[in-house]
């Protein structure tokens, strides 16, 4: 079956990166096709490493453009190269292990505030009945404190994890996308901070849900844990972090 043409009216270009994860991407695409095809102009699927094609011969209600990297790239670099193929008002960065039980995209776009540069629904982790709490400013004290009894998460998030990030393309373009000096971790906080510093808002659609079928490599691999820790250090040494810290203090 030929690939369907991109709809001129669909507002979202979607970026998914597979690190040998097409078995996770397949059910995600099936759910997007079932629930949200009318909002998706195209999916840019990046194969960060070579893998068997589990999607061959399957028809979808939206075109899929593939990028096959000659060498693996980091989280930000992969999504930045996907954004170069985006000509829609919205650009969605989506993890392969996000799952949907209903349409989330169309209602999110209806609820989008004019100054919303970055949006997300509430995220449900596997096996948990309540969505993940909002994130406070990323500091060493906050990381340690969020595990303690009596921790009170903020009513409004200071940043949005990179599982599901729906960017207004104008905002993404204006701030230059992800900072590619990060590798796998830290990019999400950094881009949220720079989005806010550029005058855009982070908007959470509180009545909408997406599920995260968590694949937590940092708990299993010393390599991933190393990347995680070094990325946190890069965050705390960055100018964007301290400018955002001052902005948050002024708003408190």
Model regions low in confidence, pLDDT < 50 over at least 5 residues: none
How does the overall form come out from the CA principal axes? Answer: globular
Distance between the termini: 56 Å
Number of strands: 8
Major sheet: 8 strands, mixed
* Beta-strand fraction estimate: 15-25%
Keywords: Transferase
GO molecular function, one term: transferase activity
Protein name: GT2 family glycosyltransferase
InterPro entries: Galactosyl_T_C, Nucleotide-diphossugar_trans
How would you characterize this protein structure?
It comes from Variovorax boronicumulans. It contains eight helices and eight strands; from the N terminus they run βαββαββαβαβααβαα. The chain is an alpha/beta fold. The protein is globular, with a radius of gyration of 18 Å. It starts with 11 loop residues before the first strand and ends with a helix. The relative contact order is 0.16. The mean pLDDT is 91.
Question: How are the SSEs placed, and which strands pair?
Answer:
Layout: E1 12-18, H1 22-36, E2 40-47, E3 64-68, H2 75-83, E4 90-94, E5 98-99, H3 105-111, E6 116-125, H4 140-145, E7 164-168, H5 169-175, H6 187-197, E8 201-212, H7 222-236, H8 239-251
Parallel strand pairs: 1-2, 1-4, 2-3, 6-8
Antiparallel strand pairs: 4-7, 5-8, 6-7
């Amino acid at each position: 079956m030929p690939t369907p043409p991109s709809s001129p009216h669909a507002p979202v270009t979607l970026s998914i990166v597979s690190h040998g994860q097409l078995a996770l991407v397949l059910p995600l695409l099936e759910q997007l096709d079932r629930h949200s095809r009318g909002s998706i102009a195209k999916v840019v699927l990046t194969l960060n490493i070579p893998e068997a094609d589990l999607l061959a011969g399957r028809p979808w209600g939206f075109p899929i453009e593939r990028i096959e990297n000659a060498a693996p790239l980091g989280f930000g670099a992969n999504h930045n190269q996907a954004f170069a193929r985006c000509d829609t008002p919205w650009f969605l960065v989506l993890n392969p292990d996000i799952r949907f039980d209903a349409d989330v995209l169309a209602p999110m776009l209806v609820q989008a505030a004019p100054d919303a540069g970055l949006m997300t629904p509430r995220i449900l982790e596997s096996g948990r009945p309540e969505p993940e709490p909002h994130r406070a400013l990323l500091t060493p004290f906050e990381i340690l404190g969020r595990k303690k009894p009596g921790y009170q998460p903020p009513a409004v998030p200071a940043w949005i994890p990179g599982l599901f990030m729906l960017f207004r393309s104008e905002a993404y373009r204006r701030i230059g996308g992800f900072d590619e000096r990060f590798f796998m971790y830290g990019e999400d906080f950094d881009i949220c901070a720079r989005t806010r510093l550029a005058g855009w808002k982070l908007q959470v659609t509180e009545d909408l849900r997406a599920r995260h079928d968590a694949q937590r490599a940092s708990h299993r691999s010393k390599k991933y844990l190393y990347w995680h820790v070094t990325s946190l250090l890069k965050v705390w040494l960055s100018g964007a972090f301290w400018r955002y810290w001052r902005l948050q203090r002024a708003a408190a």
